[in-house]
Amino acid sequence: MVAHLVPPRQFLAASLDNYRPDRDFPSQGAAVAAIRNFITGPGVKSGGFFSRRKAEPEAKPGIYLDGGFGVGKTHLLASLWHLAKGRKYFGTFIEYTALVGALGYADTVKALKGASVICIDEFELDDPGDTRIMTRLLGELVATGTRIAATSNTPPNALGEGRFAAQDFLREIDALSGQFLTLRVDGVDYRHRQNSGHAISVGDDEFETTLRSLSGGVTVDSFDDVLGLLSQVHPSRYVKLVEGLQQIALRDVHPFAGQTDALRFVAFVDRLYDAQVRIVATGTPLDQVFPDEMLAGGYRKKYLRAMSRLTALTAGAPE
Known about the structure:
Number of domains: 2
Distance between the termini: 36 Å
Radius of gyration: 21 Å
CATH superfamily of the largest domain: P-loop containing nucleotide triphosphate hydrolases
CATH class of the largest domain: Alpha Beta
């Protein structure tokens, strides 16, 4: 599990040079500069020949990228990971908490101790227990010299939640809050720039035609069969389910009736997106499977992130 803590396949070549800041949102370019400084460390400023050289303030050991979906936070985080020297790790919040569950807290500290940087994508704020475990873990690692970089998602249209989550993040990590530089990354969801902004569902005839045209690793299942399989596998193991796949085909997609299945599916979608597994589906469009009552609840951010990713994965499916 520790060996798998590297950026997803789609970000293996991510760099600050191939990140394309949106000129309409200067905070994206500012984030690039801040990350370069975070990795290289503050320099020494000097004026004229007779001026006194002044060192910049000591850099903080943590950096937090705060913004909405699709503004490039994961790309920036992966770029930071690639720039870092020495032993380093990159994973989602759920991957780190799963590591603690599998190894135990003490052995997780031992496994990660000595890393130059720990990158945490999609830091979750909706489970107080997991948040406390992660805060304690990060505190121990920072105390031994490890630097921390994190992101989380706040949807731009989150009802009553505001645009950004930095204050929520800093409050939840409590004692560590003073160790983090927080950066706002504005922008629009790039995943919607080249499509209609909605997940694509196909009819039965088109579904069969598409299946005949597919090559490489592909699975064909009913939506309910996939949900049944997910109920039998721990979310930390979902990465194994998508290994080697290029696309999946789902029949008879329908809205969720229970939150447990919905949350498992969200975790599965994250792994599909990391591996860029394309989706062909019939039935209800996949960005409409989360009922209004779920979107109004405490897991709203998770569902909106999944909807954004499902839109991108169905739009990229073979025609």
